[in-house]
Amino acid sequence: GYPYALPGYDPLAASMSVLLLPLLPHCGPRALQARGCSPRTSPPRSVVFVSDLEPAFAQPGSGEAVRSVRLGLAEESDLSAAIDVLMDGFYKDALTLAAAEFSDEEMELLRPPLTRVNGGLKAFTRLLLRLQAQARCGGRLKAPSADSPPPQGSLMLCAVEGGSVVGVVEVSIEPRDGRVPGDVRPLHPPWAPRERVAYVSNLAVVSALRGKGLGRRLLRAAEGLAARWGHGEVYLHASADQPKLLRFYADQDYAPLPEFDAPQWVLALSGREQTRYHCRPLDSRDVESLAAAADAMRRTGQRRA
Questions:
Q1: Residues 6+ apart with CB under 8 A from 255
Q2: Dihedral through CA 127, CA 151, CA 253, CA 31, nearest 10?
Q3: What's the pTM?
């Protein structure tokens, strides 16, 4: 799903979107595209893993590299490694040089200061992503729980291999209005409450394991949590300009909802590219099996606590 753009639903943070969005990771999950990333090793984990929930979360045809990965609720010690995965999946340099517009001498002259500026923006983005994740996941990182998060919170799952975080995904409960979490939302009358739905975001996998089915496993695990929370549908955003990514979600039975596309003037003002809202209905068999798997995860966590 699409990365969160700004922390939570803080009005001040939302009002800063015009200034900050051009500096933040752009467009939908590039997690399935090849990029270099060295997984960061996390301290020993005490949280429950969900790999024993196969076959509910298993994907036919997954390679041995993916089968060795275990899925679990994120802990506070996982956060830095999870941000590494998100940066690798979503971040791109804010400033680049068009080689055709500059001579070789000019490129050599401009490259060092540009590298410093991009390095500073990258460090700022990483810090902001960490603060956002802490604000969204809050106490869930200190005391992991598979219960439904509060209205302004998220639950993070990590994929771990050999002590290293190699993939992440988040699940939250959001208004069904097609907006990316953190966007400015119009005032809504309190006597007409918004419909809230399960929403998947920040799906990312390290480059060494992309294309091996781990992204699908993480997605199915997120759907399992949504089913346990009583939701019959799952929503997410994906870049409208990435055919490969759109095909991936189509293969996972996610239907595009172009009627929720943001107007062009909003995109021009925010500096963001178009993202498309998607929905996957969970049929009764999905809901029953995935909810049972997520409930087993909760019971196992209680036994290991």
A1: 278, 279, 280
A2: 10
A3: 0.74
